[in-house]
């Protein structure tokens, strides 16, 4: 399903006007943002118009190949500049359009041009790291399994809620942003862990803050145990497709979900690489992380101890088990 950015790019591409061409994204906003297309180079991107009085430092983007960040004089307005971000990689155009759609939506609601410029620049810095991470790379087996587990919990939330909550649910999926935990709401968080038959007994915890509930009201751990095979079960593209089917009538949420997938390193053109690994659920469990839950917390570390990584035995968590409905009710309440 195309979004507005992709639709505008398609129109600009058919016109084949030589040079960098821009088209206004929204006439209802006082912030002037554009979809851009450059022919014959076939570059796709977005741009923001802003006064020359606002100074920008583009040095952080000088050494990266994508997105290409450039600054031009904006001929449409006096004393104005045009900040552009574009890509030329054809196999990422679809995913990039969803990223662009979401950042433009965030920019056009800003009250001041200064806030809009800051939002765009912060996004470009995040995109810089994102494109460096996914450039010519596909997900490892461990990354595929981890993403499948996260999407399994996301799908549970979507199926448990009404369509009016879909956007907030997908927005709460922050694991793709390399956040501390995989799902984060106002006063709750869920960390997702997966194991397969090769290592079914222990869970790897990355960092002293991952299971630290000091700064949050409620923290849950969701564990999925899978049988992994080449034929039996569901593969990662099938899981992705099932979630997109749920969101098919909600363009904004579908766009957000697609951008989350790209941030996770999942690219549609790489789907064929993920079809041979299937996951058959053996057991899934929810645990309430509280009290004497087996973990290491930040305040318990001695001075000088850093980069903590440890394992916990799954069998030791039984007394902390909670029902799935309790977790979903908490996560979806007021979110």
Radius of gyration: 22 Å
Order of helices and strands: HEEEEEHHHHEEEEEHHEEEH
Shape assignment: globular
Mean pLDDT: 91
What's the tally of helices?
A: 8
Q: Count every beta strand, where a strand is a DSSP E run of 2 or more residues.
A: 13
Global structural class: alpha+beta
Q: Unreliable segments (pLDDT under 50, ≥5 consecutive)?
A: none
Task: Compute the separation of the termini in Å.
Answer: 26 Å
Beta-strand proportion: 25-35%
What is the multimeric organization of the chains shown?
Answer: single chain
- Estimate the helix proportion, in percent: 25-40%
Largest sheet: 6 strands, mixed
Q: How would you characterize the overall build of this protein?
A:
The protein is an alpha+beta fold and 335 residues long. 32% of the residues lie in helices and 25% in strands. It has helices spanning 4-15, 93-107, 113-134, 141-160, 166-171, 236-246, 251-263, 324-332, and strands spanning 19-24, 33-39, 43-51, 68-73, 80-87, 183-184, 188-196, 202-206, 218-229, 234-235, 278-288, 309-313, 321-322. The strands form three sheets. Strands 6, 7, 9, 10, 11 and 13 form a six-stranded mixed β-sheet that branches. Helix 2 (93-107) runs antiparallel to helix 3 (113-134). The model has no long low-confidence stretch (mean pLDDT 91).
């Amino acid at each position: 399903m195309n979004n507005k950015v992709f639709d505008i790019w398609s129109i600009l591409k058919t016109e084949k006007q030589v040079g960098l061409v821009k088209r206004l994204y929204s006439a209802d906003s006082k912030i002037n943002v554009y979809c851009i297309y450059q022919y014959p180079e076939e570059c796709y991107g977005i741009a923001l118009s802003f006064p020359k009085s606002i100074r920008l430092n583009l040095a952080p983007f000088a050494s990266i190949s994508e997105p290409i960040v450039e600054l031009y004089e904006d001929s449409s307005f006096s004393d104005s500049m045009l900040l552009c971000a574009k890509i030329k990689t054809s196999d990422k155009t679809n995913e990039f359009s969803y990223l662009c759609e979401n950042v433009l939506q965030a920019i056009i609601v800003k009250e001041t041009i200064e806030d809009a410029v800051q939002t765009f620049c912060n996004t470009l810095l995040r995109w810089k790291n994102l494109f460096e991470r996914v450039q010519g790379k596909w997900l490892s087996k461990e990354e595929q399994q981890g993403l499948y587990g996260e999407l399994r919990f996301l799908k549970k939330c979507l199926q448990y809620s009404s369509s009016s909550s879909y956007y907030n649910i997908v927005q709460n999926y922050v694991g793709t942003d390399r956040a501390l935990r995989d799902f984060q709401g106002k006063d709750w968080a869920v960390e997702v862990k997966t194991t397969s038959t090769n290592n079914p007994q222990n869970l790897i915890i990355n960092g002293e803050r991952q299971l630290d509930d000091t700064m949050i009201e409620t923290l849950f751990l969701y564990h999925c145990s899978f049988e992994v095979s080449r034929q039996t079960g569901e593969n990662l593209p099938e899981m992705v497709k099932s979630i997109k089917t749920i969101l098919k009538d909600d363009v904004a949420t579908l766009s957000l979900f697609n951008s989350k997938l790209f941030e996770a390193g999942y690219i549609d053109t790489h789907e064929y690489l993920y079809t041979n690994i299937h996951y058959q659920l053996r057991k899934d469990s929810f645990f309430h992380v509280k009290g004497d839950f087996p973990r290491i917390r930040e305040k318990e570390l001695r001075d000088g101890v850093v980069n903590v990584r440890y394992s916990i035995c799954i069998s030791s968590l039984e007394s902390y088990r909670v029902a799935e409905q309790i977790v979903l009710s908490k996560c979806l309440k007021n979110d």
